[in-house]
Amino acid sequence: MKIALMDSGIGLLPAAAAVRRLRPDAALLLSNDPDGMPWGPRTPEDLTARALDVARAAAAHRPDALIVACNTATVHALPALRAELEPRIPVIGTVPAIKPAAAGGGKVAIWATPATTGSAYQRGLIRDFADGAEVTEVPCPGLADAVEHADAEAVDRAVAAAAALTPPDIRALVLGCTHYELVEDRILAALTPRRTGGLPPIVFHGSAGAVAAQALRRIGAAPEPGAPADGTLSVLLSGRPGDLPATALTYPEGRLLASKAAAHSS
What positions belong to coiled-coil segments (predicted)? Predict the structure, then answer.
């Protein structure tokens, strides 16, 4: 079993780690685009062209499924990716977890890139799935880039700016960019001091676990966390074979993937 994941950078780490936990025996192929990152500021047409190049590089290795581990690429490029690759390769997009977050009602915030915040795509998800919840859309300029470069000070500045725009009494927070799941602890640390009056802890809603499970469902595979941990790891950098970026090892998800790869190669 081979699962490919694509993103401009290391935002694919949470979903890759989730697949690794569900199927330790799966071969993982990480296809990212250091030559073209970041994707967020690009026009939809330019982003789609970059995403197609990254997807084609992955498809050449004949994966059983391809996860688009990027919310912005899913917004703009998913139809083009599916038109080119399916049904030969199932393509799984990454959608903000608005529906489960809103299920309990109350106040919900969605943190996303400026390109996704306010987009017709996100507004459509809110319209269709957030009935009964009060939703605040929070743009997070610079946060994905700071996470990508493992710049802790820039991460904290961007998180603090987003926290200031977030109602202090939210019940749930949707992480609408895959990069943000890598710094969930920093986000929680910024939001917690603003909560008063005995409010319960904020429930975080990322996409990695759901996307990993959907990829397995699309290829008819069941989760087997106890399977032999002999899954391989391959990396493509704008189509060229390479290694995990050094910044990936800053995060637990990157270290998990690297340690499994090292153990297999030894």
Answer: none
